[in-house]
Amino acid sequence: MPNSPSADPNAGEGAAAPQAASDFVRDIVAEDNRTGKHGGRVVTRFPPEPNGYLHIGHAKSICLNFGIAADNKGGICHLRFDDTNPTREDVEYVDSIQEDVRWVGFDWGKNMFYASDYFGKLYDFAVQLIKLGKAYVCDLTPDEMIAYRGAPSVPGKESPYRNRSVEENLDLFARMRAGEFADGAKTLRAKIDMASPNIHMRDPALYRIRKVDHHRTGSQWCIYPMYDYAHCLSDSIEGITHSICTLEFEVHRPLYDWILDELKTPCHPQQIEFARLNLSYTVMSKRKLLQLVEESLVSGWDDPRMPTIAGLRRRGVTPEAIRHFCARIGVTKYNGMTDIALLEHSIREDLNRRALRVMAVLKPIKVVLTNYPEGKVEDLEAVNNPEDASAGTRKVPFSRVIYIERDDFMEVPPKKFFRLFPGNEVRLRYAYIIKCESVVKDANGQITELHCTVDPDSKSGGPTAGRKVKGTIHWVSAAHAVEAETRLYDRLFTVEEPDGGKEGRDFKSFLNPNSLETLAGCKLEPSLANAAPESRYQFERLGYFRADPKDSKPNKLVFNRIVSLRDSWAKEQSK
Ligand code: ATP
Ligand code: MG
Questions:
Q1: Which of the residues 399, 412, 447, 570 has the least number of beta carbons within 10 Å of its own beta carbon?
Q2: What residue ranges define each of the domains in the chain, with the CATH number in brackets?
Q3: pTM of the model
């Protein structure tokens, strides 16, 4: 079962947005400030590897790191590109990461760094470790290294190269750098303890040979530092006080501390681990997201179904909704699964406040109001946002021929169907009560239009305006409608944990075949003719929508459904 840490996803809309409450990381920072541990400084960092686009899990880390810096007077958060693995990295990602962090709502000011800027310093530190007798060049192949490493309960075996002299190590390491050896032929390893119960302390590799160009340093280097080695030193070089990372790095912390202790660096940041965000019905590994993109299973990193920041942005989610979601899930050390319904709830709550209500018919059927005069047009008043009186009202044209939703009519209705069927009455939102008199069919028996009559006294201000009927449906005047395509998105996967559980389970086999439904020929009220992507709308009774920023053009409108009005999955599951 997914656990939703705090709020009930079905709680009433418009509930107050949570503030970033305190959490155990903030408590540690506050305590360090009290004791003066870091001289009262607070310097955090957000260190993405530029090997993919950022996702909603990264947003949690962004809100935490930048949020803590903002909470503390003089606090700073660095944006650091952890670009130590040239084979997977690209400038496209460096650019998208900056755009996405800014869009989520944070600013690193002048503090943008690249781990690759420290390659020279990191090399010098490695030479220092060799001189201290704490690192050695090893000739074991990658497979041999794995075999020698042992298992958690089986001590490892020392490498036969472990006791090379300092001079020999210095010479070999310099030649590794000079490009004398092939990829994988040699590594530089820390000399720690092959019997350590912590596998990460069994002489971990610090440098490996990779004869590939780097997107920033070009062909300057053919040896590249390993993550664990580069990360702690980059933190230290930048004067980071609190190095906040996800729980899987807890077992790497002894190595983080060992490297800084052996090198006696003046700055020794404190590593603090928190639980990463896991979200149901999606995947968040960048490797898997990349597969979806490369295999064209989605339209790109910004496909509105993707859990990426770019995807959520394109879909129409606001940065406020993302920040509220991150505040709501909180920060703990408990590795759980957050129900995606909670994210959807945060999105609805935000849109409920800001979205203008409009009428749109997505799957239209024509209705002729036989007793309504031909050529007559009335401008009826409609409320823009019942949540926000300042949003005011607008006029919506009404005429003899309208469209209603195909699903709002049934020729043979089941019990409790309170919408339109032959002989029944419904109210048209902001307009008249109508009664279905007859159904018109083509030669194949397909319904082509409905003939209805209006109760002319039943509109607002009329003698029977208050007359109650059981159903109210939305509509659009046919003569005034603007056409649009709409894209209805659903969850990308059909199961809670597409990449969880059993070995060998292919997450792609759980892709939801109905995650995108494209509807052409939708009929929108005319106020939407010039809808800009910046505006978010509630299509009454249907969901929240916005014009797609890439594909929507004034003469070819395309709307994305950001989120439905209700959690239809919860209903499905309880059935
Ligand atoms: P992947 O495993 O998909 O490559 P990653 O964790 O390696 O992801 P990074 O670019 O290294 O991705 O992540 C940058 C920062 O964001 C790290 O500090 C990492 O801990 C944090 N982060 C990544 N994923 C999540 C998540 N799901 N929840 C919270 N923080 C995350
Ligand atoms: Mg990483």
A1: 412
A2: 25-116+230-344 (3.40.50.620), 119-225 (3.90.800.10), 358-566 (2.40.240.10)
A3: 0.92
